Every structure is written in C-alpha cells, then in structure tokens.
Amino acid sequence: MAQIGIDKMSFFSPHQYIDMTELANARNEEPGKYLIGIGQTQQAVVPPTQDVVTMAVNAADQILTPAEREEIDTIIFATESGIDNSKSAAVYAQRLLGLSPYARTIEMKQACYAGTYGLMQARDYVALHPGAKVLVMASDIARYGLHTPGEVTQGAGAVAMLVTENPRILTINRDNQFMSRDVMDFWRPVYAEEALVDGKYSAEVYREFFRDLWARYKEKTGLAIDDFKAFAFHLPFTKMGLKALRDILPEADEAKQALLLTEFEASRVYNKRIGNLYTGSVYLSLYSLLENSTTLTAGDRLGIFSYGSGAEGEFYSVELQPNFRDGLVTGQMDQLFDSREYMTIPDYEENFMAGLHGATDREFDITKDPAKFVLAGLKDQQRVYLAH
User: Fold this and answer.
1) Alpha-carbon span 43 to 153, nearest angstrom
2) d(Cα 364, Cα 145) in Å, to the nearest integer?
3) pLDDT of 111-146, one tens digit each?
4) Which helix (H) or strand (E) holds 148?
5) What is the three-class DSSP state of 93?
6) Which of 228, 226, 231 is nearest to 210 (CA)?
C-alpha cells in the first residue's frame, strides 16, 4: 500500500494581537493565572476584514503551485465558525484559490475534532484514488465574549494541509483509535455568536478521553510510550496538553520523561502566542513541534491527540519523512510574529464588537489589513471577498 500523509503544511493568523499580561490586569486577575495556569502569553485578534474563509485561503495560497491547483480534486474545510448554514466554506476557498472546478467541496463540523476527521478522509480518499491530491483546511475563530472565563482562551487562525502519496512531511499510520460521547461541556447554539462552555468539566472530559484512548491504543497496537519521540495535543490552551501528557509520564523512565517534556515545550511555542483555533489547534501544535524541536529525525513516531468538545476524540500516530521540514513554508512563523501589530485592550474590546453582525450592507477598510485575501464587507447579504 502506498505511503500517504501530509506533503505540505501552512499556517495563517491575523496581523494583530493582545498581550495576556495586559488582559489579566484589565480583568483584575494575577498575570500568572494566564501566563502559567493557562499557559498563554499572547492572543491573535481577528479584524472585521478576516473570517474563516480568508484565513484558510491565506494559509493555503502559500503552499500551492499552479499545477497543484489544477490537480486537487477534493477540498475539505473543517470549522465550527461557519459563515453559512447551507453553503460550504470550501466552495468560497475553491474560487479564491483558483482551484479546478472539477473538484468536490465539503465543510465538516464537530467542534475542534473536525480537522482530524477531514485529514483521515483525505488519507483514505488518496488510498482509493492513486495520485489524487486533497486540500484540507482547518480554520476557526475562538470567541467567548468579553469579561467571560473563556476570554483568555480565545484566538484565531487556519492550518492548510496538502495530502498526497509519498508525502514530504509525514505519513499517517493506520492505527487510529477514536471515541464519541454526548457531553455538554461546550456548545454554541445556532442563535449565539459566542460559545457556551463549562471550562472545568471540559478539561476533565478532555483528559478522560486521552487516558481512555491511550490505553485502548496500547492494547490494540502493542506499542508503548517508549515507541514515541513526541506527542502533539489539541491545545485550547497550552496547559491543557501538559496536564494530559503528565497523566502518562509515569509510564516512562526519567530520561524519557525529560525528553517528552522538552518536545512538548517545542510543540506549544506557537500556540502560546496565537491562542485557540479550534479545528486547527492540534495541527498548529504539530507545526510548532516540527519547526522548534532540535532532536526530531526521519522515522520518528509522533503521537497525535485530537479532541472536540461535545465530545469526540482520536489518537493516532504519524512517521516523519526524510527532510520533513521541506514541506513547511520557510520563515513563515518568524515573519508572522515579527510583523504582527500590538493592540491595546480598549482597542481589542472595540474590535470585538465590530464585524459582520446582522444583514445590513457595509464596507470595511481593507487598506489596514496586509493579508492577500480579505473580507471587504457585505452586499445584498453576500460576503464580498477580495484579493489585494
């Protein structure tokens, strides 16, 4: 059977951010609660000129060649921040990216988990259609509301992944273990713009799912913690993944524990500065691990834990390929962080109330947004997307 996996990866997040120390001070909280207890230092802020579609295409546009735009025949868009209850966000992405009209386009939803399901569907599709190429995009805006307990775990961004045979970055093993259960730890009714969450309960369910799936994975595969070089976790906030990792560390000796903790730190470098991006969170963590680890080599097995509230979880492994960093965009994250604009808390609060609320026609000032693809406004209840 052909080796199938992620050939290229790319990331995008808006050009503005707030500082978590300043947010803590504005909310009369000790900064350590956010910086250490939650594990976040900065948070991406979404201007009115960006949404899940523009973020996804801004990410994907950086990795696709003209030939690949013609060859891609399936476009999978994972999000829980959809812009339409009927029309798939993938259709907008297809047009904006100049992809072949002879492609399937679909949007998937199951909280933060949908990106993983999309990735597995892409893997299985390529297995059945040799030579096929599938574009998977996971794009989201984590939004809880001002002065809410979840405010510190907001964020936004998009990960784009090209799935092919003989991939440059990694192959996806067929050892997936998954589970679902009807749990009310997080949800967003169709009438609400902000999510509802029972934070403490959700954290407990997350760790419970991980422990259950890890035990099942070991039973089904015969593998153990020593067979893994590192783990990438879904990180709604980065301390969450650390707690889950600590649950299984006693299975390893001291040297292995130290190694896994070091690799975990590499895996959360970017998430600490972006915040939560729901469906793309675990893949930003993977991206961070690939770029910031100093010890990863070809053939290393990595464990991936994906979780979506409500709830669904999946654990699987991947294997790194020779020259795996060649499938990443060189300098992408450094450029993003170096060019981001600092935003004060009052400006962030004003921005939070802006955007497309309701059906009234309006235009946005796109001159202040440096991204290639932007949302220019609303006309006749249709979103106006532009490339500039």
Assistant:
1) 8
2) 22
3) 999 999 999 999 999 999 999 999 999 999 999 989
4) none
5) helix
6) 231
- Per-residue pLDDT reduced to its tens digit, 297-323: 999 999 999 999 999 999 999 999 999
Beta-carbon neighbour count of residue 376 at 10 Å?
19
Q: How many of the other CB atoms lie within 10 Å of CB of 33?
A: 13
| CATH numbers and ranges of domains, the chain | 4-169+328-387 (3.40.47.10), 172-323 (3.40.47.10)
Specify the 3-state DSSP secondary structure of 319: strand
- Alpha-carbon distance of 343 to 188, in angstroms, equals 27
Confirm if 296 and 230 have CB atoms less than 8 A apart: yes
Both structure tokens of 253: 């000796």
% of the chain surpassing 70 pLDDT: 99
CA atoms within 13 A on the CB side of 85: 3
Q: Is the dihedral of CA 337, 341, 343, 348 positive or negative?
A: negative
Distances (CA, A) of 349 to 135, 151, 343, 362: 35, 11, 10, 20
Measured CA to CA, the distance from residue 140 to residue 114 in angstroms comes to 11
Label residue 214 exposed, middle or buried (CB < 10 Å: 0-12, 13-18, 19+): buried
Helix, strand and coil percent figures for the chain, each rounded to 5:
40, 25, 35
Half-sphere exposure of 387 (CA within 13 A, CB side): 9
Q: Are strands 177-180 and 362-363 parallel, antiparallel or unpaired?
A: unpaired
Residues annotated within the binding site for (3S)-3-hydroxy-3-methylglutaryl-CoA are 144, 243, 276
Determine the distance from the C-alpha atom of residue 203 to the mean position of all C-alpha atoms in its chain, rounded to a whole number.
18
Angle at 245 between CA 333 and CA 320, to 5 degrees: 50
Active site residues: 80, 112, 234
